[in-house]
Write a structure and sequence with these properties.
alpha/beta, seven-stranded mixed β-sheet
């Protein structure tokens, strides 16, 4: 048996339904970010930068692109004979075959994987947050407090606190109360979904709670450990951390990358973010093109104008096109004289000539106002939009659309077009 001090379990199976059409065909951690990366690159890079060389990635929903992206872990130096990165989908067992039901159940179903490393500590991570954190420092803190569980927590505005698990601590940062998404929060210290467990404590809790229908850390494991007088401590983190679980937070996090002094810096030498990179040619900027304050991916050709936007690799922006305040993911084509305002365009989208996105006044989305809001236009991957159509704000389009889908050549603000076979 190979002994590891700490291994990481990275939860990457979520659908990310609040990202709407962006996650219709791909798991949230595999969604493109920052013109070059995928969301899962951030926790994976944090692991290797923190000296953690054994990571189990738990997948479930639409795992194909995630699996392809991770491969054998070469970009993160996680292609190891002992440890390294292992993708852990649900699998058929002799007694039963079941999907992961909840975050803790997913970890429980992989007890054997963890057992083979006989770790002292297990780090539990979410695959859908953008941040840089040295987990070594958190582990030192865990040891110094002789803790059973350490929960990374950060202050959030009190009006947003009910969206999170909230911890209440004493003067030593020991957790005295934990409430999962309380209606009336009594503290603004929010759990970040990053936990260090002493292995024996985690194993005991998972086995005790194995018969729960759905088993989650916030709802079940933490309260169980709390009731059994385990030593729980909050590790307060004050750096940049973003849960990119909604379209508006995903858009904001991308836009923050292009600020003059970015809040979140992708260019630091000492804490690199690693990703799988394809061998593609350099970008090409035409003579009459104009680019202002934007990120432009490799292999992208710009013939039009781009302002304050994040453009992925192998994108083509044709002559006369104007792109503002938008995210365009890899392999998409923006037609001639198209005008794009505040849009999120997924991978392999084809936009015809003279298309206008983000016109008119904001109207509430007719189908899913909680998902499609903030004035954004969201277009799912592999969609096609015919030439000459106009699309309003708070809209969503998915699939290969034709002129017939746009009465009068327009999709008004608040409208949705989802072609058969595509999910909302």
């Amino acid at each position: 048996m190979i002994k590891k001090e700490m291994i990481a379990m990275l939860l990457a199976g979520g659908q990310g339904s609040r990202l709407g059409v962006l996650t219709a065909k791909v798991a949230k951690p595999a969604v493109a970010f920052g013109g070059k990366y995928r969301i899962i690159d951030f926790p994976l890079s944090n692991c290797i930068n923190s000296g953690i060389d054994t990571v189990g990635v738990l997948t479930q929903y639409q795992p194909l692109r995630l699996n392809t992206h991770i491969g054998i872990g070469i970009p993160w130096d996680l292609d190891r004979n002992v440890g390294g990165v292992t993708v852990l989908p649900p699998y058929e067992k002799s007694t039963s075959s079941e999907w992961y039901t909840g975050t803790a159940n997913a970890i429980y179903q992989n007890l054997e994987y963890m057992d083979q490393y006989n770790p002292d500590y297990v780090l539990i991570l979410s695959g859908d947050h953008i941040y840089k954190m040295d987990y070594k420092i958190m582990l030192d803190y865990h040891k110094a407090n002789n803790a059973d569980i350490t929960i990374a927590a950060m202050p959030v505005p009190i009006e947003e606190a009910s969206r999170f698990g909230i911890v209440i601590t004493d003067s030593d940062n020991r957790i005295t109360e934990f409430e999962e998404k309380p209606a009336n929060p009594r503290s603004n210290l929010a759990s970040m979904g990053i936990y260090i467990f002493s292995w024996k404590v985690l194993k005991d809790a998972l086995i005790k709670l194995k018969d729960q229908n759905e088993c989650d850390f916030g709802k079940h494991v933490i309260p169980y450990c709390f009731e059994n007088n385990r030593r729980l401590f909050a590790y307060e983190y004050n750096g940049y951390w973003k849960d990119v679980g909604t379209l508006s937070s995903y858009w904001e996090a991308n836009m923050e990358l292009i600020d003059l002094i970015p809040v979140f810096n992708l260019y630091e030498e000492f804490w690199k973010i690693y990703t799988k990179t394809d061998s593609i040619p350099p970008q090409y900027i035409a003579q009459d093109a104009y680019i202002e304050k934007s990120i432009i991916g490799d292999g992208t050709e710009v013939y039009g104008k781009v302002y304050n936007s994040v453009i992925g690799s192998n994108v083509v922006i044709e002559e006369g096109a104007v792109v503002r305040d938008s995210i365009i993911m890899q392999d998409s084509v923006i037609g001639k004289n198209a005008v794009i305002n505040k849009a999120i365009i997924a991978e392999e989208v084809v936009l015809g000539d003279n298309v206008e996105l983000g016109i008119g006044n904001e109207e509430e989305n007719q189908k899913l106002p909680k998902i499609y809001n903030s004035g954004l236009v969201t277009i799912g991957e592999c969609s096609e939009i015919p030439s000459g159509v106009k699309v309003g704000k708070n809209t969503a389009i998915s699939g290969k659309t034709t002129l017939e889908d746009y009465p009068g050549g327009t999709l008004p603000s608040g409208g949705v077009i989802i072609k058969a076979g595509d999910n909302v």
